[in-house]
Amino acid sequence: MPKVELRGVELYYSLDGQGPETIVVLNGIMMNTLSWNEFVPVFTAKGGHRFLRVDFRDQGFSSPYPQEYDLSIHVDDLKELFDHLELQKVHLVGVSYGAMVALLFALKYPEYLATLILGNAVAQVTKFLQAAADIWEYSATTNSGELFFKLSMPFIYSDQFYSQHWQWLKEREAMFNQILTPEWFAALRRLCRSSYEFDVLDQIHSITTPTLLIAGTRDIITPLEEMKKIQERIKGSRMLIIEGAGHASFYEKMDEFAAAVLGFVALHQSS
């Protein structure tokens, strides 16, 4: 597996495709590189780009990090990984937790970015998001995949998605109960705590990287109103709204999400 030791941890990554443009995706808090498998042919064979997926420390196939930390720790991890892979001017796509990291990266290392694409994002942790994270952290203490799924997923998927994909969701619940380990739950709790103090709302006005926001109309975790705050502060940023999608718009409306990313990359490609 492609791993590289950087800053005292092993980071797992997967780099697919060829081409002058590189799309980098940053996971949501419960995700890993495998979560983006269906996007690989879309961004590589069809899009003609390189596609880099990364697991943060304490996530997926990367090293666990059994101590308290702030999510800003991931920013320098990414910078070191980009240097290791000799990547310049990437198209950085972050969703949810990954969007928080992407905003911090854009503030600290704008020279590495061609575009910034934020899916289902906030610039500060709201009280409602804090309450949801508290529920996820609490349910993680049970080490029960079934209970964790029941308590967390209604925040993630829209009510419409639940109506249309009930059987799939029940199968996922059973899978969670089989594969989630105490180590995974412990890492998730640390990841949750790492974002509690996140607030860059008064800083993002300085971002000049071409920015696209992708919002879901039925997202209760990072609602449209919060994403509009980002758009108002990043000069020239654009907003694409996906009708009927919840917080997991990239799953619920994968074709629309992928088309938005590819279209924005095409507008700002270097060649």
Topology (elements, then pairings):
Blueprint: E1 3-6, E2 9-16, E3 22-26, H1 40-46, E4 50-54, H2 73-84, E5 90-95, H3 97-108, E6 113-119, H4 127-140, H5 145-156, H6 159-164, H7 166-179, H8 182-194, E7 211-216, H9 224-233, E8 238-242, H10 249-252, H11 254-267
Parallel strand pairs: 3-4, 3-5, 5-6, 6-7, 7-8
Antiparallel strand pairs: 1-2, 2-4
Characterize this entry briefly.
The chain has eleven helices and eight strands. It has 271 residues and is of the alpha/beta class. Helix 3 links the parallel strand 5 (90-95) and strand 6 (113-119).
Features:
alpha/beta; 271 residues; Rossmann fold; 44% helix; globular; eight-stranded mixed beta sheet; 8 strands
Describe the structure.
This protein is α/β, with parallel strands linked by helices. It has a single domain, classed as Alpha/Beta hydrolase fold, catalytic domain (Rossmann fold). The chain is built from eleven helices and eight strands. An eight-stranded mixed beta sheet has the order 1-2-4-3-5-6-7-8, sandwiched between helices. α9 links the parallel β7 (211-216) and β8 (238-242). α2 (73-84) packs across α3 (97-108). The longest helix is centred in the middle third of the chain and has 14 residues, at 127-140. It is globular, with a radius of gyration of 17 Å. The mean pLDDT is 95.
